[in-house]
Amino acid sequence: METTTWRFIDTGKGSPAWNMAVDEAISIVHGQGKVAPTLRFYGWDPATLSIGYFQKAEEEVDFAALAREGLGFVRRPTGGRAVLHDQELTYSIIVDEKYPGMPRGVTEAYRVLSEGLLYGFQALGLDAEMVNLASEEEKAKYAAAGGSSVCFDSPSWYELVVEGRKVAGSAQTRKHGVILQHGSILLEMDIEKLFSVLRFPSERLKERLMRSFPDKAAAIQELLRARGLEETTMDKVTEAFREGLARGLGVKLVPSELTDEEKQLAAELAAERYGHDSWNLRR
Fold this sequence. Notes:
This protein has a single domain, classed as Bira Bifunctional Protein, Domain 2 (BirA Bifunctional Protein, domain 2, 2-Layer Sandwich). By secondary structure, it is an alpha/beta fold. The chain contains eleven helices and twelve strands. The strands form three sheets. A six-stranded mixed beta sheet has the order 10-11-6-2-1-12, sandwiched between helices. A three-stranded mixed beta sheet has the order 4-3-5, covered by helices on one side.
């Protein structure tokens, strides 16, 4: 990819509806040629369960448990499975499909856009690698037992792993010629809370998946502790991945803010789509 200038926006913590609305608003405005390609960092308030575009909310989510835990809920515009957004850094990348050097295929574009995540983990002292799950046999090695609705329990064609354990969960969508890829970089992971708000075909399957989950996924602090390294901070994680993604994308990131148009569009999308049951419970 050629070196060029992108926007870098850290919007801090936002509501579930606002976070998804901002990602879409940036995508729309960028598609109209009004803003540069954008890397955005954000967090969640309250902690939130998000599900993929194709998931069946009422079949897969325990809404009574969500309420008891005080968690938010939103359906993402991207695919993939359920993610508990709590102690994490969330990123989104918005760029035109025709951006120089961007592969046309979804799988290869995912690899290119995710390369910077690899550098971010390595900057924190973790020996991360990108595994190409090109064959069904390789994919099966990382696949969960059937029935799981959990993102970090399910492999994609390329995975960022440390010692075989998934360390980042990302999803991508394309609309009107623009790629939106966003994902979770976990500092800590509350497995019991995650599994408590999801529905499973049986309690036995739930318990089995929950027991096996730590063998398939890991969070940054846990991995650092296991290596006898000092735990990190959100500021250090943010800096590591900002620099890593800039390097992976081959771009210069310029600190910026949402435009007035993006803010207005995001407010409309939050109210009319991502904050509304007609979207969140649609399947």
